[in-house]
């Protein structure tokens, strides 16, 4: 990294008292709800019901409604949701599942865990989502499912993916961990495939106070199988139909999420306002040609779990370091494509096999976008970014 010496003086002069802007400040979202959340937790403590109970049932009902599906099944995490979806669809050894490589690890590890083979497919460089045109070539007689990931909060091109899946008799499992509340042609994420998977990891748009996840489906049989697999495959008690796992949602997490769910739409609106404001500020600052702004598809309602720009010409890591020096938080989602991870080396992928994914991994940078981020903070982010990228690139190390 060549941040040292590349202009701390001019930066200091241009922003002498500019306050720090964090990538994410979870406390700003939670603190106004502190009393309400504590009361909900206290009710659980007093009830002595730490698993199942009315809070979990309520969260399942409201999530199903929000997602426009018949059934929602709580589980312990988004990672478990993906695993359970594959188990309930009887996907395992000898099968292949098409997944993006430009995503969080859990999308592919779930496939590996059930003994199937993840088949990595390249992305559309504008949206960072699976490119439907590249899926068909990856289908073989062993393919059972496609897992489109609605990355950063924007839905994949689901009509094309579903058409293909119907023609080739494949299941579609939506990884909507980053996209609760997002819409595709007006239809909610999690209602667009056979099964939807949600995560309530604390940094997601709806975050618990720990791990939590949810599965969605409108197929009653599948809902029953998901529930069975999430509870040791046990029904009735101590009679095991299948070998499931233990993946329960803590009642305390459900109680917290029930309080927060009522604010989700408002938070999504604030994220949209922030994304629009970045677009305007970055454009007005003349940076739209120096960095690549995120692309929102007109038929998609983006919920902006991340606001992800591209910084080209090999400057991304230096820009991130200089932003950090200037007190501006940013993050790289994701620096190493999954097909190049050590653990997936046995799959035989080589560098260069997914060019758009590999290019994105070198160029992406996510800026602060959380709902409570202020306009002044966004101006600071854009000003500091402008100071850095408008300067000629530092000598290559
Ligand atoms: C967060 C995330 C997951 C995993 O969710 P956890 O609740 O952390 O297990 C899966 N896929 C994607 C795309 C994610 O962002």
Please write out the topology.
Layout: H1 8-14, H2 26-30, H3 34-47, H4 54-67, E1 71-75, H5 78-88, E2 96-100, H6 106-113, E3 117-121, E4 143-146, H7 158-167, E5 171-175, E6 183-184, E7 187-188, E8 195-199, E9 213-217, H8 220-230, H9 251-261, H10 264-284, E10 300-301, E11 307-310, H11 316-325, H12 355-363, E12 364-367, H13 375-389
Parallel strand pairs: 2-3, 2-4, 4-5, 5-8
Antiparallel strand pairs: 1-9, 6-7, 6-10, 8-9, 11-12
The structure holds pyridoxal-5'-phosphate.
Structure commentary:
The chain has 397 residues and is an alpha/beta fold. The chain has two domains: 30-261, Type I PLP-dependent aspartate aminotransferase-like (Major domain) (Aspartate Aminotransferase, domain 2, 3-Layer(aba) Sandwich); 263-396, Aspartate Aminotransferase, domain 1. It is built from 13 helices and twelve strands. The chain has a seven-stranded mixed beta sheet, with helices on both faces. Strands 7-6-10 form a three-stranded antiparallel beta sheet, with no helix packed on it. Helix 7 (158-167) links the parallel strand 4 (143-146) and strand 5 (171-175). Helix 4 (54-67) crosses helix 9, helix 5 crosses helix 8 and helix 10 packs parallel to helix 13. The longest helix has 21 residues, at 264-284. It starts with 7 loop residues before the first helix and ends in an 8-residue tail after the last helix. Residues 1-16 have low confidence and may be disordered. The chain binds pyridoxal-5'-phosphate. Pyridoxal-5'-phosphate binds at residues 77-79, 103-104, 106-107, 149, 175, 177-178, 199, 201, 211, 213.
């Amino acid at each position: 990294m060549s941040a040292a010496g590349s202009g701390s003086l001019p930066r200091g002069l241009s922003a002498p008292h500019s306050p720090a802007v964090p990538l994410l400040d979870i406390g700003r979202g939670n603190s106004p709800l502190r009393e309400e959340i504590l009361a909900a937790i206290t009710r659980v403590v007093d009830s002595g019901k730490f698993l199942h109970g009315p809070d979990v049932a309520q969260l399942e009902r409201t999530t199903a409604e929000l997602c426009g599906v018949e059934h929602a099944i709580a589980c312990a995490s988004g990672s478990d949701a993906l695993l359970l979806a594959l188990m309930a669809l009887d996907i395992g050894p000898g099968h292949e599942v098409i997944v993006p490589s430009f995503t969080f690890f859990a999308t592919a590890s779930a496939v590996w865990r059930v003994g199937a083979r993840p088949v990595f497919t390249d992305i559309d460089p504008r949206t960072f989502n699976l490119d439907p045109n590249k899926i068909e070539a990856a289908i073989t007689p062993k393919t059972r499912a496609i897992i489109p990931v609605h990355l950063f909060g924007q839905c994949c091109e689901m009509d094309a993916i579903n058409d293909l899946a119907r023609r080739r008799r494949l299941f579609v499992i939506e990884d909507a961990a980053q996209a609760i509340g997002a819409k595709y042609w007006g239809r909610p994420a999690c209602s667009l495939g056979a099964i939807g998977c949600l995560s309530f990891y604390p940094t997601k748009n709806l975050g618990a106070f720990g791990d939590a996840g949810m599965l969605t489906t409108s197929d009653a049989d599948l809902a029953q199988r998901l529930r069975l697999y999430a509870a040791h495959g046990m029904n009735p008690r101590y009679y095991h139909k299948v070998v499931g796992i233990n993946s329960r949602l803590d009642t305390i997490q459900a109680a917290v999420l029930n309080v927060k769910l009522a604010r989700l739409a408002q938070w999504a609106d604030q994220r949209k306002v922030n994304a629009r404001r970045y677009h305007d500020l970055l454009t007005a600052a003349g940076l739209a040609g120096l960095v690549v702004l995120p692309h929102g598809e007109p038929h998609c309602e983006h919920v902006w779990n991340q606001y992800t720009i591209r910084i080209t010409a090999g400057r991304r890591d230096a820009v991130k370091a200089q932003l950090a020096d200037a007190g501006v938080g940013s993050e790289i989602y994701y620096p190493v494509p999954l097909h190049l991870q050590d653990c997936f080396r046995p799959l035989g992928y080589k560098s260069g096999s997914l060019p758009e994914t590999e290019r994105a991994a070198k160029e992406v940078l996510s800026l602060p976008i959380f709902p409570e981020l202020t306009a002044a903070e966004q101006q600071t982010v854009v000003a500091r970014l402008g100071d850095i990228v408008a300067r000629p690139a530092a000598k290559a190390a």
